[in-house]
């Protein structure tokens, strides 16, 4: 059946706009073109910023009840169009249709929680009379929106990560300009449709598609943009921080997540969780399992288990409901992963299973005997590869877990509460999962990392905190 190619518009200041310049969106399964999308110019980005600035300056802050109403209608729209969203995610991205459906469910919940948190965003009273001489002063602080948020999102969760930017921004009363990944802009544009249908006033949302090299600097450096919220690679994040000046910044920059499996662990549970955590979304997951440290007495049993489980995964067409692992986002990324694996093998690593590339597909791969100096041991592979290594004890595992410049999530499997708390205290990460892999998150929790994994925390309430400014109000009351 011939693929139907669609032409999409981008949302500029609440209005749909075309452009003579377009770029192609591909289905990574067969590299077929599925859409033509506008390639925005600097002029169009400036127009979006001007519309947002006009909205912020001329309108009163959108009332909380209006934010709740709009976000609730968006979540209802997403529920009503659940399968359309899922097909969009699967076609333009790497996820299987089953994984895509789960993402739509999560993104709908992200928007629904945003509506709830809009109701709960409050200030606090301040006891000014704690200072001598301030007995007649009373007051409080109140949260105000920062104004305009600039957001940049990656390809791996093309709907839910977009929802994590737009939902909290609108809930906090801001305007937002979103630049989605060029590989996966269709899900973001589909979500923008939901906000238009829900009646969000023009100027509060723009979704600008195109090359980050052409329009990215304008977004991050324009003085009207008061905050940058970025999810993506460490190199891009570092480059942005050098350009933004004194703007507020929130960044999630990926990881190289460790999981520790001790001898008292439930091994079947650990194998299942680590296999899923390593290979879901073809390994293109910032909290995916990349390094597994297994206590030596159970190492062979665990390795046999995860190797067997990995070999049993079905790799193939994303739209087939029986598929477990689809392609990577494009062939270039699959080639990169293959190069990293080959480098590790040249340095002494052994491929227990996998290590095969066909186009954009890379088979689920388990590596052992990996040199700590290899790229795949130190950096974020962002592909379907996991390293399994024996350790003598928990102390050694913690040392190895902390030996990279990332600290997003970690996991540990143990029945020993004392050892669990030792890991909690000593592993330098933003989140640690006990008797689960690193690949666990709910959308309401604070999410972010230490070291090279980013700045600040997402999770709707915590994003809203960063997207607002506290203003102190103090009354000096005459007696």
UniProtKB/TrEMBL annotation:
Keyword Membrane in record: no
InterPro entries: Ald_DH/histidinol_DH, Ald_DH_C, Ald_DH_N, Aldehyde_DH_dom, ALDH-related_metabolic_enz
EC numbers: 1.2.1.97
Pfam families: Aldedh
Catalytic activity: (2S)-3-sulfolactaldehyde + NAD(+) + H2O = (2S)-3-sulfolactate + NADH + 2 H(+)
Keywords for this protein: Oxidoreductase
Keyword flag Nucleus: no
GO terms assigned for molecular function: lactaldehyde dehydrogenase (NAD+) activity
Aldehyde dehydrogenase domain residues: 17-473
Functional note: Part of the sulfo-TAL (or sulfo-SFT) pathway, a D-sulfoquinovose degradation pathway that produces sulfolactate (SL). Catalyzes the oxidation of 3-sulfolactaldehyde (SLA) to sulfolactate (SL).
Family: Belongs to the aldehyde dehydrogenase family.
Name of this protein: 3-sulfolactaldehyde dehydrogenase
Organism: Halobacillus karajensis
């Amino acid at each position: 059946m011939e693929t139907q190619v669609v032409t999409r518009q981008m949302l500029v200041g609440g209005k749909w706009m075309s452009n003579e310049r377009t770029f192609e969106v591909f289905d990574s399964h067969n590299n077929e073109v599925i859409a033509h999308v506008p390639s925005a110019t600097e002029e169009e980005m400036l127009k979006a910023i001007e519309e947002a600035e006009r909205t912020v300056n001329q309108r009163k802050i959108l009332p909380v009840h209006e934010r709740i109403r709009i976000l609730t209608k968006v979540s209802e729209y997403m529920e009503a169009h659940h399968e359309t969203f899922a097909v969009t995610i699967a076609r333009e991205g790497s996820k299987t249709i089953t994984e895509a459906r789960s993402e739509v469910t999560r993104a709908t919940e992200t928007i629904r929680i945003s509506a709830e948190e809009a109701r709960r965003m409050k200030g606090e009273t301040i006891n000014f009379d704690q200072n001598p001489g301030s007995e007649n002063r009373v007051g409080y602080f109140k949260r105000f929106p920062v104004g305009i948020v600039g957001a940049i999102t990656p390809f791996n969760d093309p709907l839910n990560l977009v929802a994590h930017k737009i939902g909290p921004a609108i809930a906090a009363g801001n305007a937002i300009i979103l630049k989605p990944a060029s590989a996966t802009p269709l899900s973001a544009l589909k979500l923008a449709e939901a906000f238009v249908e829900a009646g969000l006033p023009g100027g509060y949302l723009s979704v600008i598609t195109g090359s980050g090299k052409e329009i990215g600097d304008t977004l991050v450096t324009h003085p009207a943009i008061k905050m940058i919220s970025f999810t993506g690679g460490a190199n891009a994040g570092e480059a942005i921080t050098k350009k933004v000046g004194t703007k507020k910044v929130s960044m999630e920059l990926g990881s190289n997540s460790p999981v520790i499996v001790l001898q008292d662990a439930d091994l079947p549970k650990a194998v299942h969780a680590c296999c899923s955590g390593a290979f879901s979304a073809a390994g293109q997951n910032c909290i995916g399992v990349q390094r597994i440290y297994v206590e030596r007495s159970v190492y062979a049993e665990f390795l046999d288990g995860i190797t067997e489980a990995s070999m049993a995964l079905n790799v193939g067409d994303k739209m087939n409901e029986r598929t477990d692992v689809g392609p990577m986002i494009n062939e270039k990324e699959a080639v990169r992963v293959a190069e990293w694996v080959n480098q590790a093998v040249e340095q002494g690593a052994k491929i227990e299973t996998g290590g095969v590339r066909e186009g954009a597909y890379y088979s689920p791969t388990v590596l052992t005997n990996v040199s700590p100096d290899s790229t795949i041991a130190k950096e974020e592979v962002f592909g379907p590869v996991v390293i399994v290594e024996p350790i003598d004890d928990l102390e050694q595992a913690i040392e190895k877990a902390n030996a990279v410049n990332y600290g997003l999530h970690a996991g540990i499997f143990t029945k020993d509460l004392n050892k669990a708390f030792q890991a909690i205290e000593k592993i330098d990460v933003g989140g640690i999962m006990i008797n689960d892999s690193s690949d666990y998150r709910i959308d309401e929790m604070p999410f972010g990392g230490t070291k090279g994994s980013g700045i600040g925390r997402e999770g709707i309430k915590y994003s809203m905190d960063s997207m607002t400014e506290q203003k102190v109000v103090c009354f000096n009351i005459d007696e």
